[in-house]
Amino acid sequence: MKYNYYKIFFSFTLLSLLLISTGCNNEYIEDIDRGLGYNYRPGHPELRAAASGQIREDNTPVIIVSGDLVKGSLIYTDNGTSSYEANFTVEILVREASDNSSPYKKRVIEDRIQAQNTSITNNQDVYRFEEIFEVEPGKYEIQIIVTDQKSNKRSLQTLQTEIPDPSDQISHITEIRVLGKNTSNEQAPFNQATTYDIPSRIDSLKFVFQVTNSKPDAPIEITSRLLKFRSDTSIARPMSFNNYSSSSIQYLGIDYNKYDVIQQSSRILEQTGSVIIELSFSDLPRGNYRLEVRSETDEDNELFKARDFGIKSENYPSLKTPEELARPLYYLMDDKEYEELMSHEDPKELKNAIDRFWLSNVQNSNMAKNVISQYYQRVEEANKQFSNFKEGWKTDTGMIYILFGPPLYNDHFSDQMLWSYSYNQEDPERNFLFVQPKLKNEFYPFYHFILQRSSYYHTIYYRQTERWRSGTILSTNL
Question: pTM for the full model?
């Protein structure tokens, strides 16, 4: 059978929300893709990756493997020509998921990054790569291994993807591929989104998938919906305050049963063949979303695919703008100070206010520089380690990590986690117990730990914030 190939393009401008609240059907939870996390381990290359199966115009199935490698996560050495250089290798291995003995298809990328000064070690920009593998229809496992040639340290991401057979007599929807770009740069291409989190500077999103129709006498109606879920976006409350109510959104985290329908559209596909469909959205406000696509071909065969994603701050997980740098100071300020800081709407005035805060407290400029660097490094690390439905620095674990750093001991038991900053695990001030209201699973994909707050923490919180504000944090943590 000869397959026609054409493209259908939907473009939606989000001018208003259609406030339609209803229950969320989790029947097809296995067909919801959420991307991966940041794969962050201190001292190792930071790799973020995605893979998706597609069908080319000539009906050739392919796997598109995309990756981002954070430049600042590599080791740089002086190459003797007044510049610094990092060398790395990317290995991409693809094989059938159902046969562990099958040989891998292998692709190797060897490259280097050069910089004029050592500031590259703090650079959160990424080196992008994309490789395409021709395969047969089926399920596949993809392994991506990045090796830093200077340190010989490695990072691994394992992905799965599935490609339907366009020649069978069953209709299919392929996985949804998410591409994004910053429209302020007209020359910028659309790049693959490699994590659940999408920075808000990526103001134009394109969702690409394919529908195969093998029955000329059976048109397919494709319905798509963009949903925004009710979720917590608040900053973690101080550790000596009362615990959250079990019915609050802060406790629940994200409620998949309550959502707004941002946009809905339907299209009837009458031709046979593989059809590319593109759904475009621009300027989505921050929050947690799902794009779902479905088609009821008959009573026994309903097609469904979905892609969940979160819109975070402008340069997430990095901090670049004055607003991004100002908001985490919530943990070091009282309410009046913070309200005054955030009242500055002009970015230049806000940046000056941030500088005044640090320099008026840490009065030695060299010390202030080191304190500022350490504070914001922890904020970025918190974003990479504890990101879920909201920015990692806003979570309870993020708050404790920023203020106190990594714990001496980290003990897990069932739905609880204990962080100890003392060799005495009975010390009421230096041990922090977190609980999970919901365990991470296919229905609730996030690690959501809530600190068990206590009045015991009032004194240690005050002392720790004073260490940050005075600069003594550089010599004394607790």
Answer: 0.90
DSSP string, 17-47: -B----PPP-TTGGGEE--B-----TTS--E
Residue 88: name the closest of 102, 104, 74 by CA: 74
Q: Class of 4-312 per CATH? A: mainly beta
Pairwise CA distance, residues 262 & 225, whole Å: 7
Our measurement of the distance from residue 423's CA atom to the centroid of its chain's CA atoms, rounded to an integer in Å, reads 34
Q: What's the distance, Cα to Cα, between the start and end of the chain in Å?
A: 72
Q: By the 8 A CB rule, do 474 and 370 touch?
A: yes
- Report how far apart, in Å, the C-alpha atoms of 261 and of each of 18, 179, 230, 426, 443 are: 6, 21, 11, 49, 20
Spatial neighbors of 109 by CB under 8 A, at least 6 apart, are 89, 90, 91, 92, 129, 131
Ranges 69-83, 159-173, 421-435: which has the least confidence: 159-173
Mean predicted lDDT score pLDDT of the chain: 89
Amino acid at 29: I
